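Board notes, transcribed. Complex of a protein with zinc ion.
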Amino acid sequence: MRRHKTAKPMRRCIACRESKPQDELIRFVLRDDGPAVDTDGRADGRGFYLCRSEECATTAIKRKAFNRACRRNVEEDKVRRLIEQVLDNDRGGINAKES
Ligand SMILES: [Zn+2]
């Protein structure tokens, strides 16, 4: 049986375009010098989202989804570094959350 949980804000991934709860996505924010990871989800600015998965990371890079989201050309290396930083963190569990 399906339970109704409190509605979470849903956001769309720029790679697979699926809507997911915000906490399953990485939030990026566009700064003057390009996109940055918004770790606590509260930074000002134009934001966009990507799933916390290697698959969507690869898709985003391949399809230049960042360029579209930022409306400018973003270096692929920069994108890759940003994403790796987040995925590494997830894997290492440095940010282990209390539940
Ligand atoms: Zn995705």
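The pocket of zinc ion is lined by residues 13, 15-16, 18, 51, 56 (CB under 6 Å). The radius of gyration is 14 Å.
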